[in-house]
Amino acid sequence: MVFLAAATGLRVSELLALRCSDIDFESGEMNLSRGIVHQNIGEMKTEASRKPLALSAGLAEVLFDWLAQSAYNQPHDWVFASRDTNGG
Fold it and tell me: Is 82 inside any structural domain?
């Protein structure tokens, strides 16, 4: 999560709300559409925040490896799911 934040500048709320289906490895983009604040899922603040974010090859590789190791890697799962909350 720290690596992704440093490489993209995403807000914590955006990182927490990232689902596996939001990452398109074929096109090399992440689609941001929501944020989580105080455990509430909401829309992004601005239209500019909803634009697809390009992934470098290195960042895509890190994310691909992360999801390959994660127990929660289905399209509906959160990228940074918690085992303590059964994927929440």
Answer: no
* Choice among 24-28, 37-41, 43-47 with the minimum mean pLDDT: 43-47
The answer to whether residue 37 sits within a structural domain is: yes
Is 17 among the domain residues? yes
The C-alpha atoms of residue 37 and residue 40 are separated, in whole angstroms, by 5
Residue 53 forms part of a structural domain? yes
Closest CA to 14 of 71, 69, 78: 78
Q: Whole-model pTM above 0.90?
A: no
Nearest C-alpha neighbor of 52 from the set 78, 19, 23, 74:
23
- Burial-class residue 43 by CB neighbours within 10 Å (0-12, 13-18, 19+): exposed
Query: How many domains does the chain divide into?
Result: 1
